[in-house]
């Protein structure tokens, strides 16, 4: 698949790969799947596909991709359902799930739904998209990396 990248809006709060007190950030691309489908079917020019480049907090303790309201609006992601989410401080919130959204990191991609946190909170890359892309946190380099055991193609356990 070769999509021509649309002009990207880059949201950066931290430098890519910078470790602040054990926190790891990675630059990821988020792309509207609805726009990809419309483009494939000839209804939308490839340069009109909505996408953003985000410097996301890599959080293997979170399950899903978690975005904020600004990213949702930028990608125009439709509502799917409501779910409850428990924050690190044990606060329980009812949150929107939106999508689908394509996540890209280096030579990997996956399609997921995203949970939306209110306001302009940090984007979190959770364990489900990380596992699907076969990427992991390298503790020595303290950054997100493609699994060195499978550098060219993501490998999944199917049983």
Q: Can you describe this structure?
A:
With 159 residues, the protein is mainly beta. The protein has one domain: Cathepsin D, subunit A, domain 1 (Beta Barrel), CATH 2.40.70. It contains three helices and ten strands; from the N terminus they run ββαββαββββαββ. The strands form two sheets. Strands 1, 2, 3, 4, 5, 6, 7 and 8 form an eight-stranded mixed β-sheet that branches. The protein has a two-stranded antiparallel ribbon with strand order 9-10. Strand 5 and strand 6 form a beta hairpin. The model has no long low-confidence stretch (mean pLDDT 89).
What is the structural class? mainly beta
* Rg over C-alpha atoms, rounded to the nearest angstrom: 16 Å
Q: Tell me roughly what share of residues is in helical segments.
A: 10-25%
Unreliable runs, pLDDT <50, ≥5 residues?
none
For the termini, the CA-CA separation is 28 Å
Q: Average pLDDT, to the nearest integer?
A: 89
Number of strands: 10
CATH topology (level 3) name: Cathepsin D, subunit A, domain 1
Q: Number of folding domains?
A: 1
What is the count of helical runs? 3
CATH class: Mainly Beta
Amount of beta strand: 35-45%
Oligomerization state: single chain
**CATH homologous superfamily designation:** Acid Proteases
The SSE order reads EEHEEHEEEEHEE
The major beta sheet can be summarized as: 8 strands, mixed
Shape verdict: globular
What is the CATH architecture term?
Beta Barrel
């Amino acid at each position: 698949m070769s999509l021509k990248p649309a002009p990207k809006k880059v949201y950066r709060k931290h430098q890519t790969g910078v470790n602040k007190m054990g926190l790891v950030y990675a630059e990821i691309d988020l792309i509207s799947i609805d726009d990809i489908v419309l483009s494939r079917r000839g209804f939308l020019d490839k340069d009109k596909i909505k996408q953003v480049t985000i410097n996301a907090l890599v959080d293997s303790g979170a399950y899903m991709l978690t975005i904020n309201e600004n990213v949702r609006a930028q990608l125009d992601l439709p509502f799917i359902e409501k779910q409850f989410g428990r924050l690190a401080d044990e606060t329980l919130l009812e949150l929107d799930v939106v999508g689908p959204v394509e996540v890209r990191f280096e030579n990997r991609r996956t399609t997921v739904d995203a949970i939306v946190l209110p306001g302009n909170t940090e984007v979190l890359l959770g364990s489900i998209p990380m596992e699907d892309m076969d990427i992991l946190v390298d503790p020595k380099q303290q950054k997100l990396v493609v699994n060195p055991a499978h550098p060219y193609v993501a490998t999944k356990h199917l049983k």
